[in-house]
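the three lines:
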Amino acid sequence: MDAIYWPSFFFLLFSFIACAFALGVLLAKNIVRMAFYLVLSLSSTAGLFFLAGADFVGAMQLMIYVGGTLVLLIFGVMLTSQERFIEMRTSSGEWVVAFFIGLMLFFTLGKAAFGVAAWSGLDRETAEAVQVEQTVTPLAMGLLGARVDKLDEPDAAKQEGMAGYLFQFEIVSVHLLVVLVGAAYLARAKRKASGASAGGS
Amino acid sequence: MNPIIANLLTEPVGVSHYVVVGAFMFTCGVLCMATKRNALGILMGIEMVLNGANLNFIAFGSRYLRNDANSLGLDGQLISLFVIVLAAAEAAVALAIVLNFYNNTGSIDVDGADQLRG
Amino acid sequence: MDPSWLPKLLALAWLTPLASFVLILFFGKHMGSHGKGAGLLATTAIVFSAVCSFTALFGVWLPNHPLQDASHHSAQHEEVDSHAGVSVPIRLVAAEAEGYGHAGHATGEHGEHANNAAPKYITADWYELGVFGKLKLTIGYYIDALTVAMFCMVSLIASCVHIYALGYMHDELHDFTDPEVTLTSGENLKRPGRYYRFFQYLSLFCFSMFGIVIAGNIAMVFVFWELVGICSYFLIGFYIERKSASTAANKAFIVNRVGDFGMLIGLMALWSSLGTFSFGDMTNEQGEVTEQGMFSLLRTEENDYHLQPTAGMVFEGDRFPECNCATGGSGDTASAGEASGSGELHAKPPTKNHAGQWLLLVAGVGIFCGCVGKSAQFPLLTWLPDAMEGPTPVSALVHSATMVAAGVYLVGRFFPVLSPEALLVIAYTGCITLFVAATIAITATDIKRVLAYSTISQLGYMMLALGLGGWIAGMFHLITHAFFKSLLFMCSGSVIHGVHTNDMTEMGGLRKKMPITAYTMLVGCLAIIGAGVPLMGIGFSGYYSKDAIIEQAFSFGVSNPRHWILQWAPVAGAFITAFYMFRLWYMTFAGKPRNQERYDHAHESPRVMTAPLVLLAVFALGVGWAFPGTNLKVTNLLEQARPVGTLVTSHGELLPALVIPNEHDAHNFLVPAGLWAFGTAASGLLLATMIYLWDFGLRPEELKRTFKPLHSWLWNKWYFDEIYEWIFIKPTKMFSGWISWIDRNIFDSIIHSSAAICKGGSKVVDAIVDRTLVDGTVNTLARGTWDTGLWLRKIQTGSLRQYVMFIAAGTILLFVAISFVQNI
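prediction for all of em together
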């Protein structure tokens, strides 16, 4: 019996928490509970990111997703919280159909996951020999247009794709700005409609 | 102990395992979108779908799971960063739409939003 | 007792019901008031037949042929022995000579691939009806273990049904007012009781059914085949004044004719190529073979009992040069020596006889067509549910246990003649049938119709098993199914007798009112879903037979990945079976009464009806078990009748990729098959319990509303009747309309001037070409576009969540499509 390989143990732990609370989100009837389960599920996904060596992305997951997006969602819940929206029943037929479709979808995706031989994982020695590296600097350089991680790429064909992500970064930044302006515009209260809405916020 | 479980504990996991977890979150998300009548519940489903996809990108780019020339490398992490950012933007807009819908109809039941039916 | 008693005993069992029929036919009216004595006479006759049959089994057959423990076929053994261990007991055939037909010699070492010779059998002709050239028609017998087993099964069930009918039909003892027939005067029809006539038909039916089983040649089978058909016709139309009953009787008869047409073609193909109708080899007193039967002609000992077309089965042009040789070959002394000789003559190896293979396929599929009609298989399944118009004892005897199983029996009897390609046709037919019928049973609310569809589905299981090469599995399921299905039908009859309705939506909670019926029916339900402890080998009778079928399906699926659907259909079928059977039980016996008035009037049936229920429940529970302390059990008995040449894996000649696995290999799949069977049956039961027993938030009404299109699709029985109406009945009517139109116009207006004919002709052109063809095409196109648009409009629901569901389903379909493309 070999000694326990701790990263695998933590992978099992985090993935179990993530999956269990994802299922919780699906099955919970109360919208507030759902939001809480989603927080836990996304947080433990961040743990999975750390385990895969993506430290910066994991941190961003915690900060933007858990810290930002979800707070936004919870604001939404609070703004619209009325007794009749907290729990909404879905008909049995839809649940049955959803169950079968979900089962088939998961089966198809799961079958695909084990279909590629190279995906089955490294052996223990190789995995332990991989050097731990911080990814913040290469990521930041990549966003600024310099791929420091691919400087010594020998394959000439792959050097083409070594340009950084500066352009995309710019696009996303502007996009974010536009989106926020648009969101503010959409969400602002309209004078004439508020009279018709039954007991708005 | 069951040999499969024992292997899971003593051997490193691979891309496959991550993809399965991603597939599970993805499926939960899709089902969430398909069964929740609360518009915010659907938003949460979308978040889970995006998160499942992110998990795949991270797994394809990780050197701990697959250390060969076909690995995505840092590109995977960069893509998932973009996904996170866009998810935030999407959440902001979607929330604005939901609030607008709520202001207009006084309800956040998406089954009520069927003006486009044929 | 001496084996020579066997034909005498079985003939006695066969002819006693005939005597009863003749007596009731002439004197029935005078036997007590409304023929009460007729019932007793018929019952006595059939019980006597049962006694004879069981004497034949335990007194003659078993002492002369001790059972060998063919452990491969009991689910209790998990380890797989070497194949040699099994082939020995089967080939004990050879030595014991007198009174037996020719049987192959044990061919040396029993290696793993040694094939089996013909089973032990006795065959002879009783009476020669006539000889027309080479065509010889006889009344004869062919008795092997299967015959004896079928005799016992049929006579036992028939006895139970007769006793049960004594109570069930008591309404007919006095003047009977039919509540379902209203005369023009507004009153219900009142007519004298027909008690004696019911038993008269039952006796005739028993005689005919025994005739099929004992028949020594296929021509005699055909005669009795038609006789059971006519009995079925009489019995379905017993309440002849009811429109539905007379229509159903006609439908059953006509649909069966369609199948029998194919059977006639098969018979002709076989006779023209083999020159004989008889199954086994005829012998004279010295034990020499005087006339070879079709089995030994097609599976010669020299060819290691592999199926091989005879010398007569070649193209017409190839046959003439060696005409005398071929006629000799298909005559009395054919041998494979000549067959191979003629093969050399044409300088082609005998195995490449494609014409012969095609002829065998035609013969096999032709014979199977008859079985499709009789056993209500896929294209011809519509008559059996309608046949439920007959009294319930008839449904229990004729339309579940015996007559409809005769089709399966014939396929089993004909097994040595069926080529792998014909078996594949049978397997696909069975597979489609079992699935279609099971899905229809989900929505039916008439308690007898649910059971009727269940019967069709189970017959599909048997056909599937036979088609996949699982001879024992199929035949075993035939026998276990006969017991539990007749039990289920008689229980439903008891319920109908108690509450006076067939409609399950008016029942509920009857458990407290009629406990014996309820719990015997529970035993039947558990038996049909194959309840048992997985991997332990303890369960109801259906557990053994259904597991054997699923094992064979797995074995087949592994050898033929292309036909994967045949592997998974029985597994899916097990799920649906469990669901609809327990839906039936819960709706009838559990929960709260849905119709208080009917509930208050419900009562347990009299003892003469419940006693057969209890007896059959015991058999439904234990017919799969070994007799305690012995190896006496049905599978071992059937193993003695294993058809010649089925112990090895066979390969298709026309479809070279096709492999029919031998039945012993099925045991390699005991564990996965057992787990799948148990898992699916348990989940089906659970789903039924969740919907119909527990208040779990899954409500049947709500499900029905959500799945409206699916529900109405199943509720209308896949629109089979409508499709047949459109494809066959309407065109026939239209065609006959045209014919009559031509008739009238040609013969009546022969005196009309040619101008009138011309005028009429131009009108016809206008009506047919212009209005129908031109206008019709344009109108149809327009209407089609309009309807498609309307239909597509429904998909556009505007519901966000439904779109998500569509996307997910589309993704899955895309994946499935891609995987198919990649596999090709």
